[in-house]
Design goal:
Largest sheet of chain B: 6 strands, mixed
Number of helices of chain A: 15
Oligomer: heterodimer
Structural class of chain A: mainly alpha
Number of strands of chain B: 10
Strand content of chain A: under 5%
Low-confidence stretches of chain A: 336-352
Distance between the termini of chain A: 36 Å
Strand content of chain B: 15-25%
Shape of chain A: globular
Number of domains of chain A: 1
Order of helices and strands of chain B: HEEEHEEHEHHHEHEHEEHHH
Helix content of chain A: 55-70%
Largest interface: A-B, 31 and 39 residues
Mean pLDDT of chain A: 91
Helix content of chain B: 40-55%
Structural class of chain B: alpha/beta
Shape of chain B: globular
């Protein structure tokens, strides 16, 4: 294998795995296609989250807010104008243009990413300055702020009423293309100058400062990039479901995505992708188990699926604190530049 | 590239004047004045708790001085962060190495080269040069926290060299090694530094290690300067003997 293909084998393998999801979803019935599409959208989101958390070592509980920004932007831009006249009858004067504006589906995707990037830029200065627990709380506070604005500013956001009537422009193929793109961008950042310096800061903040690395600046760059990717996930999500509610972008979604990234291994891109797909599959299996469809028996009490999912998370955290992948990346052939990350060494806490 | 990397910068002086810091009323460093010049190795010695590491922290910017000033030639570094001082060429290491554990050795060094503002290609070249110079090529792609303590120490030095230092501040780089290993390591460091025309401040508590490897010694006790000078003279200084070997009179009195 040439050096180039050795270094690109991880993103190519991961894109290959998402292609399998595409193939299964296309071959199966409508239910399977829906599950597969949603899992590909999860891949986009979790890769976005991993672009920040994996490289910085700082867990974020606020990224669902960027997904919300993407979803609402897509709703404003794609719901047919006549319907918007009805849905947003009470828009304040200064925002009246929102009811008139309309773009193509692809322009809406791009603008949704851009709006999420703007939200990332606005919050980046805070994230750049905080570490550890403070940062976790700050990201959660950001989610609460966005949720409360969306939930309370009824004239503009419809509050707790659903957004309806989006044209369905996301197909399983577009979701796959977006997942592949997210993986490529996530990998490019991870191996970039900024990504390497941010990982150094993740391993030891003060040693990185002593090496001249502006850890905060690289955190901010990763934050904005990851916000953009999560905005893309939100846009796809909105135009796939065609109707959504503000509650889709709050704690239960945050929990579901955190389970994915933690189970897979938040330090590696492979962990993010495998976690997103693996947990999607697991959730679907558990749902069918709960319905009794899997065993052919009677339905189990509601909540069983979530309970079992929580149990799997708990056991994984005990057995493998850094997730299934740890800091390793998926490879076929060892020997490349960054492919020798020992499995055992991952267990050692950083800095000891 | 090797030529640029090793090009000798104009001689300069890193100087702390009356530098001091106190924590909760305790004066950890109390009005210490010292100078390191390009190309020389200054040993900073003293018993445990004498303020050696605190002095290094003041010079590197890990701690901000509560009194006094720190200058690199005409540049006032006193209020600059550690990161900015590194960019000025005042680069430190840590006692425990503090390598980037889940990165490879090559990535450890490359990250520091990038932190110093190099482009990717230049950073990779500098990394390759330094790894070759320090004999780390065979472990270049191993994860840092899987290495032996000795290799971690060398990696920490390699990383500091990647910041293209004009002054290296080394905190017990040979800690935990026996005397002859320590002398060999510091002699090697001395060579790397002199090839670059770089000044070295070496914190060390073992007097026998610094005797043959340092140009001058600066002795601290209880945060204050005891004496400074050539190793041979310093070793004969009664005040230094008193600090290191206890007061003769007390021993006599006890008998």
């Amino acid at each position: 294998m040439t050096v180039l293909s050795t270094r690109l084998q991880t993103p190519l393998l991961l894109i290959g795995i998402t292609a399998v999801v595409l193939a299964v979803g296309t071959a199966g019935g409508p239910t399977l296609e829906r599950v597969a599409t949603l899992s590909l959208i999860s891949v986009v989101f979790v890769v976005g989250l991993s672009t920040f958390s994996g490289n910085s070592g700082v867990m974020s509980f606020g990224h669902v807010a960027f997904m919300a920004v993407g979803a609402y932007t897509t709703a404003y831009l794609t719901i047919p104008v006549p319907l918007k006249g009805v849905l947003f009858a009470n828009l304040p004067e200064s925002l009246r243009w929102l009811a008139e504006v309309h773009t193509s589906a692809s322009a809406a995707v791009l603008l949704s990413c851009a709006m999420a990037a703007v939200a990332g830029l606005v919050t980046a200065p805070v994230v750049a300055r905080l570490s550890g627990l403070q940062s976790g709380i700050a990201t959660l506070a950001f989610l609460l702020v966005v949720y409360n604005v969306l939930n309370s500013w009824t004239d503009v956001t419809r509050g707790s009423s659903s957004m309806i009537g989006l044209p369905r422009s996301t197909t399983i193929v577009t979701a796959f293309v977006a997942a592949a793109l997210a993986i490529a961008v996530g990998w490019a950042y991870r191996t970039s100058r900024s990504g390497l310096q941010l990982q150094a800061g993740r391993e030891d903040y003060w040693a990185a400062q002593a090496a001249g690395i502006a850890v905060g600046r690289h955190r901010a760059i990763a934050w904005v990039l990851s916000a953009t990717i999560c905005g893309l996930a939100g846009s796809l999500y909105a135009s796939f479901l065609t109707t959504f509610n503000v509650n889709a972008f709050f704690l239960s979604a945050t929990f579901a995505f955190v389970v994915m990234i933690v189970l897979g291994g938040y330090l590696s891109l492979s962990g993010a992708v495998l976690g997103a797909i693996g947990v999607s599959v697991l959730q679907e299996l558990l749902r069918r188990l709960q319905d009794g469809g899997l065993t052919g028996g009677s339905a189990l009490p509601p909540g069983t699926a979530n309970l079992l999912l929580a149990l799997v998370l708990l056991l994984t955290l005990v057995k493998a604190p850094y997730g299934v992948m740890g800091a390793r990346e998926l490879v076929l052939v060892r020997g490349g530049r960054r492919l020798r990350r020992g499995a055992q060494a991952v267990r050692t806490p950083a800095g000891s | 590239m090797s030529a640029t990397q090793l090009a000798t910068p104009p001689p300069s002086v890193l100087r702390m004047a009356e530098g001091g810091i106190h924590f909760d009323g305790v004066r950890a460093v109390d009005g210490v004045t010292l100078e390191v010049r390009s190309g020389e190795v200054l040993g900073l010695i003293g018993p445990n708790g004498s303020g050696k590491t605190s002095t290094l922290n003041l010079l590197s910017g890990m701690l901000r001085a509560t009194s006094g000033s720190i200058h690199l030639d005409d540049h006032d570094l006193t209020r600059l962060s550690m990161r900015r001082r590194t960019r000025f060429g005042v680069v430190r290491t840590f006692q425990s190495g503090r390598v980037f554990g889940r990165l490879t050795i090559a990535e450890n060094v490359e990250a520091a080269a990038l932190g110093g503002g190099l482009r990717r290609r230049e950073a990779r070249q500098l990394t390759a040069d330094i790894l070759a110079e320090l004999g780390l090529e065979d472990v270049a792609h191993q994860q840092a926290d899987a290495l032996t303590a000795g290799r971690i120490r060398i990696t920490a030095i390699a990383r500091a060299l990647a910041s293209r230092p004009r002054f290296l501040l080394l905190d017990e780089p040979a800690a935990g090694q026996n005397e002859s290993e320590a002398i060999a390591l510091i002699t090697a460091i001395r060579e790397f530094a002199q090839r670059r025309g770089c000044g070295v401040l070496l914190v060390e508590h073992d007097m026998s290690v610094v005797m043959g490897t340092c140009d001058r010694l600066h002795v601290l006790d209880s945060g204050r300067t005891v004496t400074e000078g050539e190793p041979a003279l310093v070793r004969r200084d009664p005040k230094v003997i008193e600090i290191y070997f206890g007061k003769r009179h007390d021993h006599d009195a006890e008998r």
